[in-house]
Amino acid sequence: MSRFNDVRFLISAAAPAQFPADVGAEVAFAGRSNAGKSSAINAIAQRHGLAHTSKTPGRTRLVNFFELLPSRRLVDLPGYGYAKGPAAERLAWQPLIDALRTRASLKGLFVIVDARRGITQADVGLFDWAAPPLAVHVLLSKADKLNRAESTAALREAGQCLAGRGTAQLFSALRGIGVKEAQDALVAWLS
Ligand code: GDP
Fold it and tell me: Does ligand 1 come within 6 angstroms of the Cβ of 38?
Protein backbone atom coordinates (compact mmCIF):
# COMPACT_ATOMS: atom_id res chain seq x y z
CA MET A 1 0.00 0.00 0.00
CA SER A 2 1.50 3.33 -0.91
CA ARG A 3 1.54 5.58 2.14
CA PHE A 4 -0.98 8.29 2.70
CA ASN A 5 -0.85 10.58 -0.32
CA ASP A 6 -4.35 11.98 -0.16
CA VAL A 7 -4.87 12.40 3.56
CA ARG A 8 -7.59 14.93 4.27
CA PHE A 9 -9.36 16.41 7.25
CA LEU A 10 -12.97 15.23 7.58
CA ILE A 11 -14.56 16.78 10.66
CA SER A 12 -14.05 18.02 14.22
CA ALA A 13 -16.87 16.34 16.10
CA ALA A 14 -18.17 17.87 19.34
CA ALA A 15 -20.86 15.20 19.66
CA PRO A 16 -21.23 11.59 18.51
CA ALA A 17 -23.95 12.61 16.04
CA GLN A 18 -21.26 14.38 14.02
CA PHE A 19 -19.04 11.31 13.65
CA PRO A 20 -18.59 10.14 10.04
CA ALA A 21 -20.48 7.06 8.85
CA ASP A 22 -19.31 3.89 10.58
CA VAL A 23 -17.94 2.14 7.50
CA GLY A 24 -14.50 0.82 6.62
CA ALA A 25 -11.78 0.96 9.26
CA GLU A 26 -10.37 3.54 11.64
CA VAL A 27 -7.65 3.81 14.26
CA ALA A 28 -7.75 6.25 17.20
CA PHE A 29 -4.82 8.23 18.63
CA ALA A 30 -4.87 9.26 22.28
CA GLY A 31 -2.45 10.55 24.87
CA ARG A 32 -1.88 12.98 27.72
CA SER A 33 -1.75 16.60 26.61
CA ASN A 34 1.79 17.45 25.51
CA ALA A 35 2.77 13.78 25.09
CA GLY A 36 3.57 14.46 21.43
CA LYS A 37 0.38 13.08 19.85
CA SER A 38 -0.05 15.80 17.24
CA SER A 39 3.59 15.57 16.23
CA ALA A 40 3.25 11.78 15.97
CA ILE A 41 0.15 12.04 13.77
CA ASN A 42 1.87 14.53 11.47
CA ALA A 43 4.97 12.31 11.19
CA ILE A 44 2.98 9.12 10.58
CA ALA A 45 0.61 10.71 8.06
CA GLN A 46 3.56 12.58 6.52
CA ARG A 47 1.66 15.82 6.57
CA HIS A 48 3.19 18.70 8.42
CA GLY A 49 0.50 20.69 10.25
CA LEU A 50 -2.27 18.10 9.79
CA ALA A 51 -2.84 17.81 13.53
CA HIS A 52 -2.19 21.03 15.41
CA THR A 53 0.70 20.84 17.83
CA SER A 54 1.10 22.69 21.12
CA LYS A 55 -2.48 23.82 21.56
CA THR A 56 -3.46 25.22 24.93
CA PRO A 57 -3.36 22.05 27.03
CA GLY A 58 -6.68 20.35 27.52
CA ARG A 59 -8.79 23.06 25.93
CA THR A 60 -10.05 21.18 22.91
CA ARG A 61 -12.77 18.64 23.52
CA LEU A 62 -13.22 17.68 19.91
CA VAL A 63 -12.67 14.39 18.15
CA ASN A 64 -10.94 15.04 14.84
CA PHE A 65 -11.39 12.60 11.97
CA PHE A 66 -8.96 12.39 9.05
CA GLU A 67 -9.28 10.22 5.97
CA LEU A 68 -5.97 8.53 5.15
CA LEU A 69 -7.29 6.33 2.35
CA PRO A 70 -10.84 5.79 1.09
CA SER A 71 -12.93 4.56 4.07
CA ARG A 72 -9.77 4.42 6.19
CA ARG A 73 -9.67 6.99 8.98
CA LEU A 74 -7.41 8.29 11.70
CA VAL A 75 -9.25 9.56 14.79
CA ASP A 76 -7.49 12.19 16.90
CA LEU A 77 -8.89 12.12 20.45
CA PRO A 78 -8.62 15.07 22.85
CA GLY A 79 -5.53 15.11 25.05
CA TYR A 80 -6.16 14.27 28.69
CA GLY A 81 -4.48 14.89 32.02
CA TYR A 82 -5.01 18.61 32.49
CA ALA A 83 -8.61 18.86 33.69
CA LYS A 84 -9.14 20.17 37.22
CA GLY A 85 -10.21 16.78 38.44
CA PRO A 86 -10.83 13.34 37.10
CA ALA A 87 -14.60 13.83 37.40
CA ALA A 88 -14.65 16.97 35.23
CA GLU A 89 -12.45 15.33 32.67
CA ARG A 90 -14.56 12.22 32.49
CA LEU A 91 -17.71 14.25 32.01
CA ALA A 92 -16.25 15.90 28.94
CA TRP A 93 -14.71 12.75 27.58
CA GLN A 94 -17.06 9.98 28.35
CA PRO A 95 -19.95 10.47 25.90
CA LEU A 96 -17.55 10.94 23.00
CA ILE A 97 -15.30 8.01 23.68
CA ASP A 98 -18.14 5.73 24.72
CA ALA A 99 -19.74 6.39 21.35
CA LEU A 100 -16.45 5.85 19.56
CA ARG A 101 -15.97 2.53 21.32
CA THR A 102 -19.22 1.16 19.85
CA ARG A 103 -18.13 1.75 16.26
CA ALA A 104 -17.58 -1.40 14.23
CA SER A 105 -14.96 0.39 12.13
CA LEU A 106 -12.69 1.14 15.14
CA LYS A 107 -9.84 -1.38 14.89
CA GLY A 108 -7.17 -0.14 17.20
CA LEU A 109 -5.85 2.49 19.55
CA PHE A 110 -2.48 4.22 19.49
CA VAL A 111 -1.57 5.65 22.90
CA ILE A 112 1.18 8.26 22.81
CA VAL A 113 3.24 8.29 26.01
CA ASP A 114 6.17 10.59 26.75
CA ALA A 115 9.01 8.07 27.01
CA ARG A 116 10.62 9.99 29.87
CA ARG A 117 7.44 10.00 31.87
CA GLY A 118 6.27 6.46 31.20
CA ILE A 119 2.77 5.04 31.26
CA THR A 120 0.43 6.73 33.75
CA GLN A 121 -2.82 5.68 35.40
CA ALA A 122 -4.81 7.65 32.82
CA ASP A 123 -3.09 5.74 30.02
CA VAL A 124 -3.93 2.44 31.72
CA GLY A 125 -7.56 3.59 31.84
CA LEU A 126 -7.45 3.77 28.07
CA PHE A 127 -5.99 0.27 27.77
CA ASP A 128 -8.98 -0.92 29.78
CA TRP A 129 -11.34 1.09 27.59
CA ALA A 130 -9.89 -0.56 24.50
CA ALA A 131 -9.89 -4.06 26.06
CA PRO A 132 -10.18 -6.93 23.58
CA PRO A 133 -10.99 -7.06 20.75
CA LEU A 134 -9.41 -3.62 20.24
CA ALA A 135 -5.65 -3.71 19.83
CA VAL A 136 -3.43 -1.17 21.62
CA HIS A 137 -0.10 0.13 20.36
CA VAL A 138 1.96 2.47 22.56
CA LEU A 139 4.30 5.01 21.03
CA LEU A 140 7.00 5.95 23.56
CA SER A 141 7.44 9.45 22.19
CA LYS A 142 10.35 11.92 22.31
CA ALA A 143 12.69 8.90 22.35
CA ASP A 144 15.42 11.22 21.04
CA LYS A 145 15.71 12.44 24.64
CA LEU A 146 16.66 9.00 25.97
CA ASN A 147 20.02 7.27 25.80
CA ARG A 148 20.24 3.62 24.91
CA ALA A 149 19.93 2.28 28.46
CA GLU A 150 16.97 4.55 29.18
CA SER A 151 15.29 3.47 25.94
CA THR A 152 15.67 -0.18 26.82
CA ALA A 153 14.28 0.46 30.31
CA ALA A 154 11.31 2.46 28.92
CA LEU A 155 10.41 -0.34 26.53
CA ARG A 156 10.66 -2.98 29.22
CA GLU A 157 8.53 -0.96 31.64
CA ALA A 158 5.89 -0.34 28.97
CA GLY A 159 5.73 -4.06 28.26
CA GLN A 160 5.13 -4.71 31.95
CA CYS A 161 2.37 -2.08 32.16
CA LEU A 162 0.68 -3.41 29.05
CA ALA A 163 0.74 -6.91 30.49
CA GLY A 164 -0.23 -8.55 27.22
CA ARG A 165 -2.85 -5.94 26.29
CA GLY A 166 -0.82 -4.50 23.44
CA THR A 167 2.54 -3.64 21.95
CA ALA A 168 4.96 -0.75 22.43
CA GLN A 169 7.74 0.88 20.45
CA LEU A 170 10.13 3.80 20.69
CA PHE A 171 9.16 6.85 18.65
CA SER A 172 10.49 10.31 17.84
CA ALA A 173 8.73 12.68 15.48
CA LEU A 174 11.73 14.98 15.75
CA ARG A 175 14.33 12.42 14.68
CA GLY A 176 12.11 10.09 12.66
CA ILE A 177 12.69 7.19 15.05
CA GLY A 178 10.11 4.41 14.66
CA VAL A 179 7.95 6.21 12.08
CA LYS A 180 8.03 3.31 9.62
CA GLU A 181 7.23 0.80 12.39
CA ALA A 182 4.26 2.92 13.50
CA GLN A 183 3.01 3.28 9.92
CA ASP A 184 3.21 -0.48 9.50
CA ALA A 185 1.12 -1.02 12.64
CA LEU A 186 -1.44 1.52 11.43
CA VAL A 187 -1.67 0.06 7.93
CA ALA A 188 -2.04 -3.46 9.33
CA TRP A 189 -5.07 -2.34 11.38
CA LEU A 190 -6.60 -0.43 8.51
CA SER A 191 -6.25 -3.26 6.02
P1 GDP B 1 0.27 16.86 22.00
O2 GDP B 1 -0.23 17.87 22.98
O3 GDP B 1 0.27 15.48 22.60
O4 GDP B 1 -0.43 16.91 20.67
O5 GDP B 1 1.83 17.16 21.77
P6 GDP B 1 2.59 17.98 20.62
O7 GDP B 1 2.78 17.15 19.42
O8 GDP B 1 1.92 19.32 20.48
O9 GDP B 1 4.02 18.15 21.30
C10 GDP B 1 4.16 18.68 22.61
C11 GDP B 1 5.58 19.21 22.79
O12 GDP B 1 6.51 18.13 22.67
C13 GDP B 1 5.97 20.22 21.73
O14 GDP B 1 6.77 21.22 22.36
C15 GDP B 1 6.79 19.42 20.75
O16 GDP B 1 7.75 20.20 20.09
C17 GDP B 1 7.44 18.38 21.64
N18 GDP B 1 7.71 17.14 20.88
C19 GDP B 1 6.83 16.43 20.15
N20 GDP B 1 7.43 15.37 19.57
C21 GDP B 1 8.72 15.39 19.95
C22 GDP B 1 9.86 14.55 19.69
O23 GDP B 1 9.82 13.54 18.96
N24 GDP B 1 11.03 14.89 20.30
C25 GDP B 1 11.13 15.98 21.12
N26 GDP B 1 12.32 16.20 21.69
N27 GDP B 1 10.09 16.80 21.37
C28 GDP B 1 8.90 16.52 20.80
Answer: yes
Cα separations in angstroms, 156 against 119, 126, 134:
11, 19, 22
3 in a domain, yes or no?
A: no
pLDDT tens, position by position, 47-59: 888 887 655 554 5
Domain of residue 43, CATH code:
3.40.50.300
Centre of ligand 1 from the C-alpha of residue 51, in Å: 12
Q: 155 by DSSP, 3-state: which?
A: helix
The total number of structural domains in the chain stands at: 1
In a domain, 150, yes or no: yes
Domain assignment of residue 2, yes or no: no
8 Å CB contact between 34 and 46: no
List, in sequence order, the alpha helices (H) in 59-138: 86-101, 121-130
Distance 53 CA to ligand 1 centre (A): 7
Q: Which pTM value belongs to this model?
A: 0.93
- State how far the Cα of 63 lies from the Cα of 67, in Å rounded to an integer: 13
Domain limits for position 81: 8-190
Atom 21 of ligand 1, nearest CA residue: 142
